[in-house]
Every structure is written in C-alpha cells, then in structure tokens.
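One such given next:
>
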Amino acid sequence: MKDDRFLIITGLSGSGKTIASRSLEDLGYYCIDNLPAKLIPSFVDLWSRKEVEIEKVALVVDIREAGFETEFPEVLKLIRKKISPQLIFLEASDETLIKRFSESKRPHPLTGRKSVTESVHLERERLAAIKGMADEVIDTTSLNIYQLKEHLTKRFLKEKHEKMQIVVVSFGYKYGIPLDSDLVFDTRFLPNPFYIDELRNKTGKSKVVREYILKEGETKKFLARLYRFVDFLIPRFINEGKSHLTISTGCTGGRHRSVVLADELNEYIKKKKYNVRSYHRDIYK
C-alpha cells in the first residue's frame, strides 16, 4: 500500500508542478523543489528513521536536473525497497504546454537552439519511461489552478473537518486588528455595556453582560446572519485546502461585545463538528 506521507511530484514542464507543490504545502506537506536524484536516498533514510521532524513530505523533481531521466528511475527503484512513496506524474497536451509557455514568457528547460514545440516533444519522449513508473498520472490540460488544487485536496486531505483548525479571536480596535485574521467582524454597532455602570468593569464572560448583549434584537439578527455566512464559507475553505482559519470579532476595547460574540460563534461552529477554539486577546487590558 502506497504511503500518502511521502510524495514525489514530477512530470512535464508547464504541467502544474509548482501549483501542485504550493497546494500540497497548504495541506501540511513539507515541500522540497528540485532535490538532486542522488540525494533522495539519503533524505529517505533520515525521514524513515525520523531523524528529521517532518511528518509529510513532497519532493518535486524533473528534467531541470542534468541526467534526470536516467538517474531517477534507478533511485526510485532503490527507495521503493525502503518505503512506499507515491509517484505523481503531471502532464498536459502539447498545445496546452506550448500555450502556457507562450503566455508566461518563460523559457522551456530544454530550450537551447530548439523551439518550444521541439522542447515539449523532446521532454515528453525522455520522460515516457518515468511516466510508466507513476502511481498516478494527472492530466492538467483542462484544469485551471483552482481545479488542480481541488483535485489534490480531495486526494490527499483526509478527515477534513479535523484537519482545518479554526480560531475565533475577540479583540479591541483600539489595540489593532489581529494580523493573522482571515475574517473580521465589527460588533461596535451593538449596545455597549461600558456605558452601564454595573457592567463597565465586568467582561463578556460575565453572565449579566452576556444577557445584556444577547437579549438585544440587533444581536440576534446579526448572529443569525453570521451563522449563515460561516456555514457558507467554512466548507469552501476546507475544499480549497486551507489548514487554518482565523475569525476575529472586534469591539472598541475587546472586553464586552466582541467576547460575547466570539464565544457564541465558537459554540455554534463546535456544534458543527469542526476543530475550533476561541481566544480573547484584549479581555484583560
């Protein structure tokens, strides 16, 4: 059985190996680009003995390395005696590859005095044997960037709900918006407990503060819309391969309204069986 934790990505130039590498990095893989074939066995030994703290790895190797088409097949046979890596080969039609090189204005790795068309044909010929050794061949002719990423996400992201970590952060605008925020919701339009003498020195963790904020019609309407919004977004972030999502709720000082709303949102998301936790950045400032 092939090991999803060790991937080797190769294929034709222009077929999407860079996009695949970035997508796999988003899925938690440690990606190494253009590692010389001769060094792969040494890296495999380190990885298999857990001498490097890397759980999942993806190596991107291709014809940029001199002699790749002759050295890599022998290296692959050698490492397959030690581990069970998955070899993923990316390709596309000649017309598509030529168009991509034309649009990107980047030279083909085999271009010397040859045209792009000649280089594409030559590379396909040289890599035919390696393609035959692949565990999976992905034809990206009709795939755009997002479709390729979605394909890899569905293929290599297991237990999606548990894999994406959601953090709900409350904060005070007077101290700045959290830099790692993906989504920011402003709660300053809600009634402010700060102006109620008996509530001013309490926080959003206090029962009386929570009741004061949650009883308001505007709060109920806002939460209903917020729940529908996250119901729409979270599955799409998961399918896109996002591994972390930070949702921030802000009020003026970060002690009352944002805390209550963050806790309500955290509980709602938790009921949906997602991996979520809350954090109140400015509650005691």
